[in-house]
Amino acid sequence: MTLPTAPPAQDFTGRTVVVTGAGSGIGRATALAFAERGARVLVADLNAESAAEVTARIQETGRTAVAVVGDLSDQTVVDRLVATALAADGPDGTSGTIDVLVNNAGIMDSMSAVADVTDAEWERLLRINLTAPFLLTRAVLPHMLDAGRGAVVFTASEAALRGSAAGAAYTAAKHGIVGLTKSLAVTYRHRGIRSNAVAPGGTITNIRLDIDPEAAGPQALGAYMGNVGQPAEAETQAAAIVFLASDAARNINGAVLPVDGGWSAV
Ligand SMILES: NC(=O)c1ccc[n+]([C@@H]2O[C@H](COP(=O)([O-])OP(=O)(O)OC[C@H]3O[C@@H](n4cnc5c(N)ncnc54)[C@H](O)[C@@H]3O)[C@@H](O)[C@H]2O)c1
């Protein structure tokens, strides 16, 4: 008796994958992981130097990668990213679709409590961490719907699951990401689109924690933040993102997967 042969569920050959924040940390590891599995990768980041480095690294392996540089909270950058993803032909003939969108780019807040959040911090956090993923998803969606398939994966956060993992603005934005994830999942579930999120706990990246330990936010949160545990490698988050985007997760839709070593279980 032989065991049934498993389909190559994490083979992305011939597929186009857009990864935002792909110049650093979780996005960088995710872009490399998709490329390793055969995908053509759009490396989208604000930082031109790091986007170029990741793109070159993928190209050195013989895979296709295209850098798109700009602030993804700007609609014109979003439109340019989508046009680039659809236009450029890979050597294997892939073009014209976006199979996977990873909405990962994000910034940290200063851990401010509600009373201390300035208008500027609130608007910046919501704009980059929630509106930008919305703008890009809205722009990509018609192409996925035309193709009748597509997977969207968001990088949420532990702060999407609880009120004690970050400041008010970051927490609100990441809870918003969960809402967006689920709204997409339920609305387009019969049209071949899946939408899921990872909720990373502490992860070793270049994200900047701009915290004043004397401020009310960190003081109030401190007692609850003790169970963070060992920070994860960015590759650990990437593996979960790739899984959620893959055919192995074909019946997973609207899920928010904690990748936090058990922090959210405490
Ligand atoms: N590192 C953690 O502990 C942790 C925990 C939970 C969630 N997250 C989330 O993971 C995601 C990735 O963060 P990371 O930790 O890898 O940080 P990182 O700083 O290492 O990488 C983020 C990347 O996003 C890019 N970026 C930021 N704003 C952008 C914009 N407006 N347009 C285009 N690119 C932009 C940055 O240039 C950077 O390359 C974020 O959404 C973050 O909120 C991180």
Account of the 3D structure:
The chain is of the alpha/beta class and 266 residues long. The chain has a single domain (16-259), classed as NAD(P)-binding Rossmann-like Domain (Rossmann fold), CATH 3.40.50.720. The chain is 39% helix and 16% strand. The chain contains 7 helices and 9 strands. The protein has helices spanning 25-36, 48-60, 75-87, 119-147, 168-187, 216-221, 234-245, and strands at residues 16-20, 40-45, 65-69, 100-103, 150-155, 193-200, 203-204, 232-233, 256-259. It has a 7-stranded parallel beta sheet with strand order 3-2-1-4-5-6-9, with helices on both faces. The chain has a two-stranded parallel ribbon with strand order 7-8. Strand 7, helix 6 and strand 8 (232-233) form a beta-alpha-beta unit. Helix 1 (25-36) crosses helix 7 (234-245) and helix 4 runs parallel beside helix 5 (168-187). The longest helix is centred in the middle third of the chain and has 29 residues, at 119-147. The termini are far apart. The mean pLDDT is 92. Residues 20-21, 23-27, 45-47, 50, 71-73, 104-107, 128, 132, 155, 157-158, 200, 202-203, 205-207 line the site of nicotinamide-adenine-dinucleotide (NAD). The site of nicotinamide-adenine-dinucleotide has 29 residues, from helix 1 and helix 4.
